[in-house]
Design a protein that fits this description.
mainly alpha
């Protein structure tokens, strides 16, 4: 029997983190208290946990969580401008990650994972200059 090697898009291997993963890790590094995010967002702890684990949540919950996170993590002078920017950046990041997951082959070495966003950033800079 002949063995065939099929290459195609796959979810195996290393993948880029979702926006929820990034915001959760950043919140941990900045010591943003999760119970305060729960209180300000008005959502359940399970919803916030699902978001920080990279799962999909409702748009209203996402907006409430990001608003609460910005309220706690950033100084008063930056909050009004930062909230829509952070929300848009997370949505754009998740869109890019989703597209790359569908179009790319598995990455097995952690060092290679950084090349994907670096390549995108260098292309963006090159096009704008």
């Amino acid at each position: 029997m002949e063995r065939r090697h099929v290459t195609g898009a796959s979810r195996e291997g290393l993948t880029l983190p979702s926006g929820g993963h990034i915001l959760g890790a950043l919140g941990n590094d900045l010591r943003v208290p999760r119970d305060e995010v729960v209180r300000l967002a008005g959502t359940g702890d399970k919803t916030i946990q699902r978001f920080f684990n990279g799962e999909s949540i409702e748009t209203t919950s996402l907006e409430a969580i990001v608003g609460a996170w910005v309220e706690i993590a950033l100084p008063l002078s930056l909050r009004a401008e930062a909230r829509p920017w952070v929300l848009a950046a997370l949505r754009r990041w998740d869109y890019i990650v989703g597209e790359l997951r569908g179009l790319s082959f598995p990455i097995s070495e952690p060092a290679d994972l950084a090349w994907i966003p670096l390549r995108l950033v260098s292309l963006e800079i090159g096009l704008r200059l």
